[in-house]
Amino acid sequence: MKKGTMKKWIALLCTVLLSISLFAIPAFAEEATDAAKKGLSTGAIVGIIVGAVVLVVAVVLCIKFREKISKFLRVYKSEVKKIVWLPWDQTKKNTWVVLVVLFVCAAVICLLDFGLGHGILAFINLF
Q: Do 39 and 31 contact (CB within 8 A), yes or no?
């Protein structure tokens, strides 16, 4: 067996074992609370199988598209390095501006709601 193929099978085996541990432990814990039942319920078994299948498919796809995923991550990393963050003082100033504008907009909407509500009630009381 080739070295790369062996790594794939080991990764697949680890995935299956991990999925069993992730999905079976909560199922066993749920079943342990009900002393009258013995074994796993059908829902727990289905959950384990579905979780294992999803995990295996994810690992197989990651192995199959390893080059594309690694290229995407390299491009992503290089793009993140290009981000220029504002200095902390500018960030604080912008935060205060946003909060003030938000408060003013809320006050305007509140006053409009109050005024229009009383205006409609006054109009209805006229008739």
A: yes
